[in-house]
TrEMBL record:
Function according to Swiss-Prot or TrEMBL: Catalyzes the phosphorylation of pyruvate to phosphoenolpyruvate.
Family: Belongs to the PEP-utilizing enzyme family.
Shown stretch of the complete protein: 459 to 769 of 769
Domain PEP-utilising enzyme C-terminal: 10-302
Record's protein name: Phosphoenolpyruvate synthase
């Protein structure tokens, strides 16, 4: 009868949407905003703040020392605003500062940054931000200003989190500057194995989305320095161990109604796209030059899934 005919499709679609994986785009510098928006991407999956600061050739603290807090906030607001404007009302994920100490040390004021033997395991991302709440709150104030200006398409993303504790501490600072985390879409990068293995607690911290930073997730899972040519042939985002972590994260996030995305370089690899669409990822965000190919690949996989479901 009728109900039986609809059965398999219904049963399948309850656990996995067959279509609708969004394709977003990573925007490296605000100047690329118009070109990125013209691709027809569903939003920006990653806009890095550090380029807006590092391009001034000064560390955040030196910049504030020389030009004042207001100017520092303005620098971020103007950089993000041009992208948020070009994409409005499509969402734009803006990541808070995430540069390793060796990059900061090359800038004016760099002598005040720590000198580390292993910057990739050191003072970067959310770790640095939580250790310097004064500096971090200036970034957060830039978000608050953007919301005030009406850019409600801006989403805040925290890099290199280890566990829910990192997120709850950042959330408290958001609230301190007047951001209401309940009212805004915000989330975190999943790029440490610890964050993948803590995903249940992380979902419960109140986030709206996670985004896989596969450059780092691969480096940390396989213990392969992403910048070390001696082991470059071992750097494989499609390694079964990396994919298994991602599979678990997507599954748990789906149970908690938390969106999942990828913004690492692997987002442009067809095999990664196939895997993620199969697992039910919410969106994929490659670099601008790969958007069209990824859009086609997503369609191809979704059509296959649709055919399989009615068979
Ligand atoms: C990543 O780690 O995959 C990522 C997108 O962040 P970044 O390359 O800036 O570390
Ligand atoms: Mg990263």
């Amino acid at each position: 009868d009728e109900q039986e005919d609809a059965g398999p499709v219904e049963a399948h679609s309850a656990v996995k949407p067959m279509t609708g994986t969004e394709v977003k785009v990573n925007v490296s510098i605000p100047e690329a905003a118009e070109r990125a928006a013209a691709t027809g991407a569903d939003g920006v999956g990653l806009l890095r703040i550090e380029h807006m600061i590092l391009s001034t050739d000064k560390t955040p603290s030196r910049y504030v020392e020389d030009h004042g807090e207001r100017a520092y906030v303005d620098e971020i607001v103007e950089g993000v605003r041009s992208v948020a404007e070009a994409f409005y009302p499509r969402p734009v994920r803006v990541r808070t500062l995430d540069a390793p100490s060796d990059e900061f040390r090359q800038l004016q004021g760099g002598e005040d940054e720590p000198s580390e033997h292993n910057p990739m395991l050191g003072y970067r991302g959310i770790r640095r931000s939580l250790d310097r709440p004064g500096e971090f709150k200036l970034e957060l104030r830039a978000f608050e200003r953007l919301y005030d200006l009406g850019y409600d398409n801006v989403e805040l993303m925290l890099p290199l989190v280890t566990d829910a504790e990192d997120i709850l501490r950042a959330k408290a600072l958001m609230q301190e500057v007047g951001i209401d985390p309940e009212k805004r879409d915000w989330g975190v990068m999943v790029e440490t194995p610890a964050s993948a293995l803590s995903i249940e607690d992380i979902c419960e911290a109140g986030i709206d989305f996670v985004s896989f930073g596969t450059n780092d997730l691969t480096q940390y899972t396989l213990a392969v320095d992403r910048n070390n040519g001696n082991v470059a042939d071992r750097f494989d985002e499609l390694h079964p161990a990396v994919l298994e972590l991602m599979r678990q994260v997507i599954g748990t996030c789906r149970e908690h109604d938390v969106a999942t995305s990828i913004c690492g370089q692997a987002a442009s690899k067809p095999q990664m796209v196939d895997f993620l669409v199969d697992e039910g990822v919410t969106s994929i965000s490659p670099n601008i030059d790969a958007v069209r190919d990824v859009q086609h690949e997503v369609k191809r996989v979704e059509q296959r899934l649709l055919l399989e479901s009615v068979r």
